[in-house]
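Please check this:
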Amino acid sequence: MIYILQKAVSRPSEESDSMEESKADASELLPKENPGPVPLSVRRAKQLISLFTMVQNPNMTHLKLGEVVVLPPLWIRCDGSDPEHTYWLGAEPLKAGNKIVGINLYMVTCDGPTAYKTCFANLEELKMQHKILHHSSVVTTKGFAQYELLRAAAIEDTIVEPESSIYVDITWNTVDKILETPPLISAATLNIALEPGDPRSPVYQLYRELQFLLALAEGLKTGVTKWPEPLEPESAVELVQEFVADLKKKLDGSWVSGNRNGMEKIRCDTEAVDSSIKSIFSERGDLDFAEQLWCKMKCVSSYQELIACFTLILESLEHGEIQPWIHHGSSSLLSKLIQQSYHGKMEAVSLTGITPIQMLLEIGLDKMKKDYVNFFIGQELATLTSLDYFISTSVDLQEQVHRVQKLHHMLEIMVSCTVLLQFKHESLFPWTQICIKYYRENPLDEKHVFQLPVSSALVKKFYQDSHPEVWKVDISSGHGLKEVKTMWQVSTNPPVEHKMSNNTGLLSDSTVNASIEEKTYFITVVKCSQVHFR
């Protein structure tokens, strides 16, 4: 826990009414936006840090404060009004057991944005300043760099999802110069957040199929179903009629291999996937009757159309006009009726209320579960045992849909890593296990940032000629409680939000020049000093 201190913002009701009495200009008539965190003056912040230090000093007995209680670290937002442009001041008690032995004092300064590398510090000068300030003879350095891989890897007509990001964080020991490219022996972590739904995604059609599944689940829960707009040239009823007609022909032996419908591929969403993904997310060839029926009925656009489709199917089954096959183990109501039809007797099902919606949801769930399992097992990224949680039928339908959403999110991540970043099985397998573990223990979170270990050599081609989003060096000396650090950093975004709110003009200028090869950077320095209580 830490304390963050900033200036209190008065509420609108507490503001003076004098503005109402004065003549308002156009800007005053506009709605007031949240100004964000409001900092204190540097002078006031320094006074408060001094008071915090005094309170934590066990030697200040004349203050009669009683027994000193160790407080959490204190950080104060500053307005950057001093010559150094200080935006944070911090104080953290140093403890030896339960005893306070000193205070670490921090000062965070920030300048920029600037594109001029002549403004950047010299590493040797930074090391010398640290040695002089802390009376150190030996210092160590540690580097950190963050690169955006999504933009670096993106090409036309590939996945570039608006709410997605792929960054790589790289750390290494012994820095030789400012803004050096990380060496290949560095430790790297892929930070990937992929929000499904981009139309350019190779699995976008599968995403649309999932959205229809979600609409059915929502309709089952609320009683109101949002039906999709008709996109196919033929209605769902016409597709089901053709499907049943073909099955009847097969049963009476009049079906011919050259038949138009017989040669027509099942209209699965996987037909529309991008050519770059077909090799790893191919159309399954083992679709049973219920799954093929889902492929026909997923374009159903009304409740009445839904009733018409199922009426046609149930009548054909009841009269023995079709004898479809289904996968073993299916627990859907339609599968049970099909099994009963084998023995010439089916229970009566009333196609009223939510029953038809539930029947369609069940066969859609069965089909999509098998699609995802087919991908993860086919690519040797998971075992059936590890996926059992996601495809279990021991939970209610709503929870089953929720778990299928998790499978789709994992699919999007692995497809992006395969197609966009071109990673191989040796990387994809452990990453899949990380995603599986996370989603077995946590609810669906499409904004979650998955942190996946990766060899820096595998991602070097994406960043070796790129500018980092963040680059920093830590210069440290001392050990244990006496360890002190100096941090120098450049970043494309302001490191403190209250600086961002005070520099909107500079930021917009940086945004305008985003297409220029030279990035603009904010320069941040964090200095640490120690006060020891004797």
The first strand starts at residue 3 and ends at 5. The chain is about 40% helix and 15% strand. Confidence is low (pLDDT under 50) at residues 13-32, 155-161, 255-276, 503-516.
